[in-house]
Amino acid sequence: MNADKNINWELAAKVYAGEADRQEQECFEQWLRYPENQQEWEKIMNELKQVDHALVNETVDVDKAWGKVKSRMTKPKYAVLNIKQSVYVAAVVAIILAVVFFLYPKGIINVDQYLVESVNKDVLKKVELKDGSVVDLNYKARLSYDSQFGNEIREVKLEGEAFFDIIPNKNKPFVILTNGMKIKVLGTSFNVKSTSGSGLNEVNVSSGVVEISSVNDANNKLVVKAGEKAIFNLTQHSFAKEKVLNDNYLAWKTKEIVFKNEELSKALGIIEDAYHISISYPETFNIDEAKLTATFHKHSIDFILDVLDKTYHVDFTLANNN
């Protein structure tokens, strides 16, 4: 990572502790000018608020913490700062690092990586990569990539679901690694769904062509074109390909849903995924025999539930949602 993008933890601690002088504050603000750095710092600050009560109950060994901090630091970037190694600042650094380790316990990110996570189910998280490609993250999805992204290769790691709109570059294929699967593209748009616990990965291609392979066997691969969907079975390490019948796989992003004589049980699943909610109905209602034909255009969930109520003459309600 370039020096001006590498966080100075001593400086960050002084800023967080309110002990930074004007020159130090300006230096830190220069670091924050990089969007990736700002996202990383905001995430750390948000998590600090949430885990504060848990952390303050721990006894902080300041000398030990300071030693760990110094061992992780690179050469000071700001030679003019001459930061004082105060006990208070050392403790703050220890707390900040504790949060960083709490956020990334498996080492998914380090000082040479960026990570973006969608934490608000009501707001679409958009990531603009420096090659011009755009990634829309579904709720709880995580995207990580190296600080040198685009210099020689374009590679990202995905957890969860996201829609990719990739800028063409024949000399630098775009590669996505996710849950046992590798996706290689030159320039196209597609949706990737990799949900932990489901045992299945899905790739719906909107435009262009993608090549999908198993990370354990590069020869086990499949080419998927626009209008097609690939399903990767993680247990059997096998691929299947189907025609895409509608765009409901993008409902989480567009809130556009079209049902044509769809089984109601499947329709409810699509609605629940799109709005990140759970729907309940009376046990006496025979959902297996019900089908739905309807079009929803960016409607609220309350509107959709009202349509279901009037269509089937039973009460559809929101279940307890996390």
Helices, strands, pairings?
Elements: H1 9-17, H2 22-32, H3 35-56, H4 62-72, H5 87-103, E1 113-117, E2 125-128, E3 134-137, E4 142-146, E5 154-165, E6 174-178, E7 181-185, E8 189-194, E9 200-207, E10 209-214, E11 217-225, E12 228-233, E13 238-243, H6 251-254, E14 256-263, H7 264-275, E15 279-280, E16 291-297, H8 301-312, E17 317-318
Parallel strand pairs: 5-6
Antiparallel strand pairs: 1-4, 2-3, 3-5, 4-5, 5-8, 6-7, 7-10, 8-9, 9-12, 10-11, 12-13, 14-16, 15-17
Helix pairs in contact: 1-5, 3-5, 4-5
Low-pLDDT regions: 51-62, 72-85, 106-111
H/I helix tally: 8
Structural class: alpha+beta
Order of helices and strands: HHHHHEEEEEEEEEEEEEHEHEEHE
The counted number of beta strands is: 17
State the shape: globular
C-alpha Rg, in Å?
24 Å
Percent strand: 25-35%
Q: How many angstroms does the end-to-end distance come to?
A: 38 Å
Major pleated sheet: 13 strands, mixed
Helical content band: 25-40%
Mean pLDDT over all positions: 80
Brief rundown of the structure:
This protein is an alpha+beta fold and 322 residues long. It has eight helices and 17 strands.
What can you tell me about this protein's structure?
The protein has 322 residues and is α+β, with helices and mostly antiparallel strands. Helices cover 30% and strands 31% of the residues. The protein is built from eight helices and 17 strands. It has helices spanning 9-17, 22-32, 35-56, 62-72, 87-103, 251-254, 264-275, 301-312, and strands spanning 113-117, 125-128, 134-137, 142-146, 154-165, 174-178, 181-185, 189-194, 200-207, 209-214, 217-225, 228-233, 238-243, 256-263, 279-280, 291-297, 317-318. It is globular and about 70 Å long.
